[in-house]
Amino acid sequence: MSNRITDGLQDLGLWRTFLAAYRSGSVSAAARVLGLAQSSVTTQLQALEASVGEPLFVRHARGIRPTPRADELAARVAGPLDELADALGTRPAAEPPIVRLGGAAEFLARVAVPALAPAVADGLRVTVSAGLADDLLDDLRVGSLDLVVSAVRPRGRSLPSLPFFDEEFALVAAPSLGIAPSPHLRPDPLGEVPLLAYARDVPILRRYWRHTFGIRLEREPALVVADLRALAAAAVAGAGVTVLPTYLIADELADGRLVVLRETDDPPINTLHLVRRPGPLSEGVALVERTLRAAVVGL
Predict the structure, then answer these.
(1) pTM to 2 decimals?
(2) Lesser CB count within 10 Å: N end or C end of the chain?
(3) Structural domains present in the chain
């Protein structure tokens, strides 16, 4: 007769270790929370993976990221384990998990990071990664990021996403160039003025020309720099004309360093989306989402 327990209670310690690792995002952090050696945490995670029959975490340079199976299991076991720990008075004082946020460098620097500063001061831990939307969405799919501010709406339903902010774009230049602002401005007076672009194929300028002037832009840019903040600085310095999101240059417009050359009630817009990694919504990610939504109100 076998004495093997079949109700799964013998694995409670393994599940407790799993949940600590899942929430902290690293073996070392889970070890600190549980008061165990890192080797013990690693051994327990390996034992649980052997019991489940598939990997639960992918190891990488900055820690561990959960697999979709781990997301599913965490959603099922977190509540019961927390209730049991509360009943026994054994819930560990866990370190808050790191929220991994991605987005365009300009939005992160001007809006996201300043908005998150009070929460960071109160204990929120955030790692911020800048990059192109497609690359960041790929990182989100494999679990390297938790939340992305994306100018690209992901296809399909594998990544939960919601629109949350419309960037408005304006044609701007320094007053020193002497271009008279007008709601009826046409491209002709701009013919000899250098164009400042984000990329060689001038995607932002082309879109503005097509949307506002109704024509195709055929000119080559005089300056190409893949940072909208640098383009704003070049425009302020009088290098030429460019198209920028108005939230990014609010200070320059307010103090007159830049002027909008063609005011319009129908500016080109670009919708930003908040895109989350599949799985349970953690308190940290929910807090970052709420903070970012509040930060764009009125921009």
Answers:
(1) 0.70
(2) N
(3) 9-88 (1.10.10.10), 98-159+277-296 (3.40.190.10), 166-269 (3.40.190.10)
